[in-house]
Structures are given as structure tokens and as C-alpha cells.
Amino acid sequence: MKHQFTSVIEKRGKWYVAYVEEIPGVNTQGRTLAEARLNLKEALAMVIGANRELAARGRTREARREPIVVNL
Q: Core-most of 13, 38, 43, 56, by most CB within 10 Å?
């Protein structure tokens, strides 16, 4: 399933610093723009995976999981 997020990438000195606007904690850096983009995708996947794992640990058997769609 594809999802779209907003990345913000800024050049700071010799580095590119990047983060995802919609999800706190997803940030990284790279020496090149391409490296920063790749690192950001990896960081996003890691944070979403960790959030899902943590949520599953605290969920009861009676909990419902269902998709939610919003148009912004």
C-alpha cells in the first residue's frame, strides 16, 4: 500500500537535513540530496514499523483494527 507524506530537506553547511512533516521523530541527514532522500525513506519505514509493533503489544484481543482515510 502506498502512502504519501511531505518531506522537508534543507541544506545546512555540507549536509542535507531532512524530516517528514506529518510524523514526529522521522528525521535524518545525508551528504548528498539523494542520500538524504534514501535515509528519510528508511527512517520513515523504521518509525512506522516500530509504532505498529508497540501498538500491537498494548492491544487487547477485543480491539478493532480498521483503515481510516482522510483527505487533507
A: 43
Q: Which helix (H) or strand (E) holds 27?
A: strand 27-30
Q: What is the pTM of this model?
A: 0.84
Mean pLDDT (whole number) for 44-59: 92
Sequence-ordered list of residues with C-beta below 8 angstroms from that of 10, at least 6 positions apart, any chain? 16, 17, 18
The arithmetic mean of pLDDT across residues 47-54, rounded, is: 94
**Terminal-residue alpha carbon distance, the chain:** 18
Q: 21, 17, 18, 26: which is closest to 51 by C-alpha?
A: 26
